[in-house]
Design goal:
Helix content: 40-55%
Structural class: alpha/beta
Largest sheet: 4 strands, parallel
Number of strands: 4
Order of helices and strands: HHEHEHEHE
Distance between the termini: 60 Å
Strand order of the largest sheet: 2-3-1-4
């Protein structure tokens, strides 16, 4: 069984986790109130319910990906957590994917792997998108 360690979830995080366990969820909280911890709790829940699956955690920048990797390592007993960024060559990512339980990546670090069928998206039971508001471009329109 995968477990949390080194932190005790707050009541609102447990409530959000319950929602995440049953529905697609967009978590909107101010900075510093534990959105990443909710993601970690969700990952643990999902891997315990679907032990042969993987969790994919997308984040927009390499520094955030590294930070999230450290949070997972400090806050869980999960082994096989992998970081996929452009610094990991495609052949190595393909090998790491096979054993990984959690993959933390930038979208760019995974895009070609998806295009080239180097990873199987059917293995993913949970997708977490950090900074989801940055997933769309901010368009400005000129009306005439």
């Amino acid at each position: 069984m995968h477990e949390i360690r080194n932190f005790k979830p707050r009541l609102y995080q447990q409530t959000i986790l319950h929602t995440c366990s049953h529905n697609n969820t967009l978590v909107v909280l101010p900075t510093g109130l534990g959105k990443t911890k909710v993601g970690i709790l969700s990952a643990i829940d999902r891997l315990n319910r679907y032990p042969n699956s993987k969790v994919l955690f997308l984040t927009p920048t390499k520094p955030l990906a590294n930070q999230i990797l450290q949070e997972f390592k400090e806050s869980t007993n999960i082994e096989n957590i992998e970081l996929f960024t452009g610094t990991v060559v495609p052949k190595k990512r393909k090998e790491l994917w096979k054993e990984a339980k959690i993959v933390i990546s930038t979208p760019q670090g995974l895009e070609n792997d998806i295009i080239n069928d180097a990873i199987d998206l059917k293995e993913i039971s949970l997708l977490i998108i950090d900074e989801a508001h940055r997933a769309v471009k901010d368009y400005s329109y000129t009306w005439i």
